[in-house]
Design brief:
By secondary structure, the protein is α+β, with helices and mostly antiparallel strands. It is built from six helices and four strands, in the order ααβαβαβααβ. Strands 1-2-4-3 form a four-stranded antiparallel beta sheet. The radius of gyration is 16 Å and the shape is globular.
Length: about 170
Amino acid sequence: MNEVIKTLTERRSIRKFRAEMPPKELIEQIVEAGLYAPSGMGRQSSLILAVTDKKLRDKLSDMNRRILGQPEGSDPFYGAPAVLVVLADKAVPTYVFDGSLTMGNMLNAAHALGLGGIWIHRAKQEFETEEMRALLRELGIEGEYEGIGHCAIGYADGELPTPVPRREGRAYYL
């Protein structure tokens, strides 16, 4: 089987990570794969915040936990040491699709590089807060950006989950 197709069909969402931070070089390759995702009319509306600082990562986790309504001490990022936050420029009509493709590219790249990943929602609500908007301003990011998702990555703690059978009747050949 072609290696790209193999990566696409074998990738699974990981829900338990080791604390070990992946090397910077792997994180950079994953981010680059995200930056090369297709985008509407080539406008490249998405941007990526590569969060490897534990304090900021834990702050995002706590915000996410509160939005989700989980009890204190739980971690919606499943212990992943790095979180790649995808945001997209709301001025671009295809921004949600562009950001979603960025997320997909990064999840597949993480798997191809021997890391695990999972898409965690609620970035939209996090980046609607003044605290996160201030962070964007500190980074020099201007404009109206919407949080699309968190790509939580790291080394899987355990085996890859077994795939669920694919549901029949979802492909039609005309």
